[in-house]
Design goal:
single chain; 121 residues; alpha+beta; two-stranded antiparallel ribbon
Length: 121
Amino acid sequence: MCGRYGRRSDKRYIAEHYAMRRKIADLPPMPPGYNITPGTFQPVVRLSEETGEREMCLMEWGLVPYWSTMHKMISNCARDDKLTINGAWIKPFQHRRCLIPGEFFYEWEVPTPEDKKRKIT
């Protein structure tokens, strides 16, 4: 998971793609986003606790570790080989899964003095 991602699809396309039966009319508009940042509310697909069927809801993008007392969000970056051993990711990976509809993700690069001197094409 990276800090920023983009989604070209809206809630209707997401509902059709994941074959959701629940009505999506009661959900707020979810326009595409090309620079989705941590702390914003974005659509996710999860299993309903009552019915066990797929449902779409809005959730805040980011991770607040279960052991955090200040409820501060930490970096969203996680590597697949560290999910089962990194303390911040163990519980969410085992018990709090969902699908995050997105088409691309990226990380900003901080330019170094050498980068500023050379021409980037």
